Amino acid sequence: MDFGFIFSSALGELFSPTTAAYALAALGLAVHFGYSGLLNFGQAGFMAVGAYGFAISTLSFDAPFFLALIISILCSVIFAFILGIPTLRLRADYLAIVTIAAAEIVRYVVTTNQLTSVTGSANGLAAFENTFYAMNPFPEGSYMGMNNRDFFIRVVGWGLVIVCCVLVWLLMRSPWGRVLKGIREDENAVRSLGKNVYAYKMQALIIGGVLGALAGMIFTLPRGAVQPSNYGTELTFFLWTCLLLGGMATVLGPVIGAMIFWVVLSLTQSLLYGLIESGAVTWLTTVQAGQLRYILVGVALMLLMIFRPQGVFGNKKELAFA
Amino acid sequence: MSETNERNTENIDYMTDSRPIAVGENTPGCKKRDPIVVAEDVTRSFGGINAVDVEYLEIPRHKITALIGPNGAGKTTLFNLLTGFDTPNTGKWQFEGNSLAGVSSYKVARMGMVRTFQLTKVMGKLTVMENMRLGAADQPGERLSKALFKGMWGGREKEITAQANVLLEKFKLDAKKDDYAASLSGGQRKLLEMARSLMVRPKLVMLDEPMAGVNPALTQSLLDHIKNLKAEGMTVLFVEHDMNMVRHIADWVVVMAEGKVVAEGPPGEVMKNPAVIDAYLGAHHDVDLGDAEGIKVLEAELEADEESVVGTEDAGILSDIVETKKEDGK
Predict the structure, then answer these.
(1) Any stretches that span the bilayer, and where are they (chain A) (predicted)?
(2) Could you tell me the residue ranges of all domains in chain A?
(3) Is A3-318 a CATH 1.10.3470 domain?
């Protein structure tokens, strides 16, 4: 087994654009659930809206990059309104049901054959990333072993993660964030103090949703393709895993959670493949190994919930009263 | 506080103001000289049972009004209806002349009508101080557009913190300031909730059983705080089962039973009302069964009652108490 390769590919996952996308989307979930108590099980839907919003406006309407970006953000805001208006007055569990259904609806709508000319159906859309790479300021060459395109998307992706983390941190230390945390603890008490709970919940839903949409774009740009199968419910649950790994009501938690998630996935995959190829493990095929690593992630999550339920960055004191 | 000073120049001291509260007779639903809340024909039924059926009720301004009645009389439901947490089936109700029909609960609170809950609601995973700050009104940083810029809300935050410190000291919670509210005891949570509602600087405070679970020494000092709220120009409406408290601080008592207002008046008068004694207080409510004197009074009262066992051989534990008390006396 080539341990050097195993660790270098695991380290590569640490700063891959996909990890950045997961970190952003999980940060959105932290705004939703960790700070405001909104159970959003449809974050994959927000990512899909962001990705398709960008791809469709670029391909079908020839929109320049920043216009496509704004359109995609607007789409996620509208999506948040559609989800929030009927459900935010109800208890938290209703939002969970509606979001999980809405994310599936989005996925089925973009998969329908009637819309093939716009959404590309099950094959999805491709070749919409040129407007993005046209802005690449880095000349061709090798940057830490990457070409200029890979380096550019990493810089943009992680730059966005840092900017969003700072924004979320600033928001959550403000009185606005305090009202959100109050709503998480007890809506009626906050209402009795004269705060418009509904408006705050809507604002939180939108902010988390926009983070999800940005994540969707960062997720698709390096792939050069957007496909409905990427935005299934399992994506939402991977994001929840990242959030729980890192700690729910923290800013850095979701980012570190996403890093841990991808490093563990990469390590287990390479180790299992290495063991199979070297003949040490004969009772597994490489296909089974690919599935086994998700089982291992599940086991890791269970162990975490038992031995460190607050996540890596969470505050143990908060759990003492849960 | 400027409001208080203003009022004082008009030479009305609400602490000693002894003008009559009601206009005319003290009957259920009577008109008040200066009402702050007026409810008319407010009804609310749950599955065929009329939880609240109030024909007419006025709450006097700058007074402490107690709302008493047996369990299930609809006191808390009336609180919910008045503050917008529940919607009545029929009726009109207004606060300072503004109709509250269809007004959502947070707007009611902003108008200056703030309530606490019977089942205490504190934000467990926020510190006591953050709980208090959350109560304050007019914090510009609570708007999303200004939240990012500390310069726009930092000044107000300092004022709020100072205000919260004063209140926490009054309510003996200053040592707990930086602890999570979830670590407070049940009684302390009651105190925190009351202190938090005062952060709003309301015109009308509605307290749902404020003294339940609070120890006697603290009750005494809290009673004084509540009384002093009047001096600051506030009106208080509270639900309480502790009759000593009601007697001690209430200027006016409203008695509810089965959803209806059955009696109103100053505490001394209402507690002698036979209907109230029947429905709520019980015949011997002013006898303290905990001491020998009380037992003697009860014995004397019940001498004429043939069915009573007090003072006879069948008295059971009551006679034991009397015996031991007598021995202690020797």
Answers:
(1) 6-31, 65-85, 151-172, 204-225, 237-263, 270-286, 292-307
(2) 3-318
(3) yes
